[in-house]
Design a protein that fits this description.
The complex is a heterodimer of chains A (470) and B (181). By secondary structure, chain A is an all-alpha fold. Helices cover 74% and strands 0% of the residues of chain A. Chain B folds into two domains: 6-52 and 129-174, 2-Layer Sandwich (Alpha-Beta Plaits); 55-120, no CATH class. Chain B contains five helices and four strands. The chains are: A mainly alpha (470), B alpha+beta (181).
Chain lengths: 470, 181
């Protein structure tokens, strides 16, 4: 029953067309910036690239985690989907380094996404609440950290792909040894997954922090990874491969998809409710930014409805999880829903950081101080005594205070003018481009060895899987 | 429901034989009153032709009751009966209602389903259980047939059928009136 995926030239061509559409999308966004004379360092383009890279990297990372967790827990349910999960990580090998590149370009002021975080290490006088963040966002430490995660992911992705290929051909002792590799990956994953969400997404707004952001992101690309796996299983089955995988296996994946959707909602709601109720200025300004713009207010609650309402109402039934059309439709919807979720994170910040549209480095730095000061505006008195000491910052603080007094509220004084509001043709095309690249790397990796591991000790058990409940 | 007191109990000692026997006995159109096994046997529900339980539907309605009750009560208290300004929050602070609503939903559905299950299976306090054979918690798989309304011929047919299907023991079991329900 050896069956290896045949990566046909036709499929390759389709995926290349998808990637081409991505390039068209990039050009479309650049053209839009050119027409509107936007001096925001192409914030829209970079926000797109960041959101997509982060999203697809996370999906791949989660694929590795599923295999590692199943392996350590003596699981058999994932045996036949194992190669599919492992192949998801093919994009992560590149994606991690793309994130490093995005960060370095931010440091070089090619784009302004990370300006608020970069600037705090350049402040002459650091407000008290940023004293530890100055260390955390120090250039070398920050880039080095992300580079370390990218390297670790690259090595683990390769090691696990090759090692699992070996376990199927030889004796069970090798299989047992794979548990060490998997346990090591789970530790590395737990740290790097949380930290990458702080480093790449939470740092877009330096003042804001959420202690459950790592978990939140875990649930987010968990959902996306299950949905992606379900779609790929359905696709491979429609091509006549993996006949041994039946609705029982898809049912299992569907249960995980449902469960992770609920986990995601739990995280989303906790994060929102606690910050809404506690009303601490440095936390709530994150939400004020979103709720000030109607578009984002709508998309935020739309993601909640799609990512929670749909699974709750339509995927809870046993029949729905075993019906390929239903679960496939749900997967497509959830992949898009979670993309919009990340879109909310990056795009609001990209709009916001438009403030720092300076041409020179000095101006850029000075402007990005304002963003830092904004968070401080609520504590007027301390802000004045803290920051007025240096000549450079005095002017900024003066205008800031003036604005604050005029506007009555700090938020209104700093309200960003939105030059691009939402998901347009550019966003859709770039997403398709990334999806094409993701699938190309996925299929290329999958075609290297048989899809179903032949001599896996748990294969027989998995073939007879019957899901009798839920 | 009037319960009968006369039963035929067939005992098997192997689950595979037992499962096959159920299939053949049901194929002959004989009604099985009860099936008792020392551990959950895979495929037993299918073999006995049980319908899918409707307990989860009941659970949904119990949960919905909890949701409605929690939301209406808190809305009544916080918005209409005694509105208080707490930390500048609106008088109808929906996000802060959600955790309690969730808890009450879980509480209602859990209690509701548990009680429904107990009542449906006649497991109320003070009930004297009917024990068909003491070894059904040890190593015997039992099939129970209601023999109250059966003729002698039908009873002997069932007994011989059980024997043919590999039952290690077939016996009559008669309960007295006050021995449970």
């Amino acid at each position: 029953m050896t069956e290896t995926f045949d990566f046909t030239p036709k499929l390759k061509k389709t995926l290349f067309y998808m990637m081409g559409l991505g390039v068209v999308g990039i050009l479309y966004v650049l053209l839009g910036d050119f027409i509107t004379h936007a001096h925001n360092h192409h914030a829209r383009l970079w926000a797109n690239i960041l959101a997509n890279t982060y999203y697809f990297t996370g999906i791949g990372l989660f694929g590795l985690f599923v295999v590692a967790a199943g392996q350590v827990a003596y699981g058999h349910w994932q045996t036949m989907e194992k190669r599919i999960f492992l192949s998801l990580s093919a994009f992560t090998r590149i994606g991690g380094f793309m994130l490093v590149a995005i960060l370095i370009l931010g440091m070089l002021h090619v784009h302004t996404l990370y300006d608020s975080a970069i600037s705090i290490s350049h402040l002459k006088v650091v407000p008290e609440k940023y004293t530890t963040k100055v260390i955390y966002f120090g250039t070398a430490f920050w880039v080095g950290r992300v580079l370390l995660y990218a390297t670790v992911w690259f090595l683990f992705s390769r090691a696990m792909n090759t090692f699992f290929a070996r376990t199927d051909q030889t004796d069970p002792k090798v299989y047992k040894r794979s548990k060490i590799l998997c346990a090591a990956f789970i530790v590395a994953f737990a740290v790097s997954e949380s930290a990458i969400s702080w480093d790449m997404i939470m740092s877009l707004d330096t003042g804001w922090y959420s202690t459950m952001f790592g978990w939140y992101n875990f649930a987010s690309y968990g959902c996306a990874a299950w949905a992606m796996t379900i779609l790929l299983v359905i696709f491979l089955k429609s091509r006549g491969y993996i006949k041994a995988i039946n609705e029982n296996h898809v049912h299992d994946l569907g249960k995980f998809l449902f469960g992770f959707s609920v986990l995601w909602t739990y995280m989303w709601f906790d994060q929102f409710m606690l910050q809404w109720f506690a009303n601490v200025p440095e936390e709530t300004h994150f939400w004020i930014k979103r709720f000030d713009v109607t578009y984002f207010k709508v998309t935020i609650f739309l993601t909640l409805i799609v990512n929670f309402g749909f699974p709750l109402l339509f995927l809870i039934k046993r029949g729905a999880k075993r019906n390929f059309k239903m679960i496939g439709f749900g997967s497509v919807l959830l992949i898009m829903g979670h993309y919009v979720d990340f879109f909310n994170y990056t795009f609001v910040e990209a709009n916001w950081n438009k403030e720092a549209k300076a041409e020179t480095k000095e101006e850029s730095l000075k402007n990005s101080d304002k963003v830092v000061l904004y968070a401080k505006a609520d504590e007027k008195k301390t802000a004045t005594s803290d920051v007025t000491t240096t000549k450079e910052n005095t002017a900024v603080v003066a205008t800031e205070m003036k604005k604050t007094e005029e506007g009555g509220k700090g938020e209104e004084a700093e309200k960003p003018e939105v030059n691009f509001a939402g998901i347009g043709i550019g966003e859709i095309l770039i997403f398709i481009g990334y999806l094409g690249a993701f699938l190309y790397l996925f299929f290329r990796n999958l075609a290297k060895r048989p899809i179903i591991p032949e001599n896996d000790p748990y294969l027989k058990e998995n073939e007879q899987l019957v899901v009798t409940y839920a | 429901m009037a319960e009968s007191n006369k039963f035929i109990v067939g005992l098997w000692d192997h689950e595979e034989v037992y499962l096959h026997a159920i299939g053949h006995i049901r194929g002959k159109g004989i009604e099985i009153y009860e099936s008792l096994t020392p551990f959950p046997v895979h495929g037993l529900e299918d073999a006995l032709g049980y319908r899918e339980t409707r307990l989860h539907t009941a659970g949904f309605f119990f949960g919905a009751t909890g949701t409605t009750l929690a939301l209406t009560f808190m809305t009544w208290v916080m918005t209409f009966n005694y509105p208080l300004n707490i930390g500048g929050k609106p008088y109808w602070p929906l996000p802060s209602f959600i955790p309690i609503t969730f808890e009450l939903t879980v509480l209602f559905s859990a209690w509701g389903m548990t009680l429904t299950y107990l009542v449906r299976n006649r497991l109320w306090p003070g009930r004297v259980p009917r024990i068909f054979d003491t070894r059904i918690t040890d190593d015997r798989f039992a099939l129970v047939f209601d023999s109250e309304k059966l003729s002698d011929k039908e009873m002997s047919d069932i007994k011989s059928l059980c024997k043919n299907e590999g039952a290690v023991e077939v016996k009559d079991k008669v309960f007295t009136e006050n021995e449970g329900l």
